[in-house]
């Protein structure tokens, strides 16, 4: 793989807004992709993993999820953001980061920009909205 990839949930408005913020404000060489449009097999990722946490697949083959993936994305940026990424990897911060990340992930539909669909597992979202994220004819 020639470049690192940061994968997020493109069906979640909150996740998408966070990724858009990162694309605008965090200079990185990594690609930011919604997992629904990523070649998960090529990246070595499973849909279930991507549905529960953001994922990092490094150009060097390294992998990370959740706040560890965010730390890797920040670490691939400018000095200011690298310091933030190092802070996120600092053991006491990391210890707190995972429970906070899981809480945010479970409540992302309540976050600014979130929608009710964000709270549903991918399978339920596809049943309701189809694979494109748009309501199906029978919903």
Can you offer a commentary on this structure?
One of its GO terms (molecular function) is protein-disulfide reductase activity. The chain is α+β, with helices and mostly antiparallel strands. The chain has one domain. It has 7 helices and 4 strands. Strand 3 (55-57) and strand 4 form a beta hairpin. It is globular, with a radius of gyration of 15 Å. The N and C termini lie far apart (40 Å). Residues 132-136 have low confidence and may be disordered.
Task: Give the structural class.
Answer: alpha+beta
Topology, number of strands: 4
What fraction, in percent, of the residue positions are helical? 40-55%
Inertia-based shape: globular
Number of domains: 1
Counting DSSP H or I runs of 4 or more residues, the number of helices is: 7
Q: Which strand-content bin applies to the residues?
A: 5-15%
For the structure shown, list the relevant keywords:
alpha+beta; 49% helix; 139 residues; globular
TL;DR?
Helix 4 runs antiparallel to helix 5.
Write the layout of secondary structure elements.
Layout: E1 5-8, H1 13-25, E2 31-34, H2 40-43, H3 47-52, E3 55-57, E4 63-65, H4 66-75, H5 79-89, H6 91-106, H7 122-129
Parallel strand pairs: 1-2
Antiparallel strand pairs: 1-3, 3-4
Protein name: Thiol-disulfide oxidoreductase
InterPro entries: DCC1-like
GO molecular function, one term: protein-disulfide reductase activity
